[in-house]
Amino acid sequence: MMTNNELLKRREQAVPRGVATAYPIFAEHAKNSELWDVEGNRYIDFVGGISVLNTGHSHPAINQAVSQQIEKFSHTAFQVVAYEAYIELAEKLNKLAPGPTPKKTIFLSTGAEALENAVKISRAHTQRPNVISFIGGFHGRTIFTSGMTGKNEPYKTGFGPFPGEIFHVPFPAATYGVSESDSLKALSQLFKASISPESVAAIVIEPVQGEGGFHAASREFFQSLRTLCDDHGICLVCDEVQTCFGRTGTLFASEQIGIEPDLITAAKSLAGGYPLSAVIGKAAIMDAPNPGGLGGTYSGSPVACAAALAVIEVIEQSQLLARSQAIGEELACALIELKSTLPALGIGDIRHKGAMFAFDLLDSQGSPDAQKTKSLLWHAQQNGLLLLSCGLYGNTIRIMVPLTVSDAILQEGITLLANSLKAVTGTA
Fold it and tell me: Phi/psi of residue 126, each to 5°?
């Protein structure tokens, strides 16, 4: 078997540099919340495929559902010959999505594809062109979703021009000095200076920003957005690509915001590692596009739909929503104790909803410390722990450990995190 370095050399020759990889290691196998590379090194996985593996690596119930579906057929193209798994999954999501309004669901392949289709549906329903999203938000890497994404480097650099009917306003994040009133005021100013609200098809927002740093807006803020959208006939789209399926302690994070979105986009942990995304929305809005206006060759793969049906069962039977809350509290207790007992670590704001957990790293002056964050990622990986960073200033550590993690592995990971922080800051 080849080494990590040998595979890395092959990768450099075969794969363009635009596809970045966080670590110079190559997976050989993984189970639940642990991963082994091709050299046999073991890692505790606090990344979960970027929040794709809420049900863990290679969950046996999901593996079984996938195997059974593959034995029947792997693909027909839903637009040519439909299949029951697509319908059954849509029925379940229509019932599980928040709010009393009747729903309909379309399945696609990626989160970006779901966001693009949410915009198409909103435009078809409203017959308007403009879209508003938020600074710090991440919505994908296509030209349109890159345009909606509120972070320039690395997602926009060199790829413009972007579609001209996308506008950004600040996301409310106390860490960045933006209050909710500031954000709402910016919306009002946008309507005065650039576009009328009657020209807006959709406001797109993450209930908890992912790439932006795991910042969450309040119920009051979302109620204000809901009122604004209702007053002007705008579709309110909640991007739940990263927050869906238990990460925040509820199946959808939008269950916690006190309003009913018009459309919800879901992906990542929806199918336990298989490529599947969804737009779930109010039936009258979802029916706006004409037949043939929505779809895709691989959209709603029967294998991925079978996996997603198994994921729902695993979440319910294993009580992973409660487990998400417990994991978040355990991580918070550990980081709060580290912050209070070892101020030299430079731990800043600690925040979480369920197991969607993040903390900032600061320098001695209290400013964002991206270099310390990079050093922590390296030290943690060397010691057998996989982490990721995020945030507008690159100084946020985000934890997306599978919700199926055992208590022992979770504690081992927390210990490795603490030891790596001490090593980076010379406080060991």
Answer: -95, -20
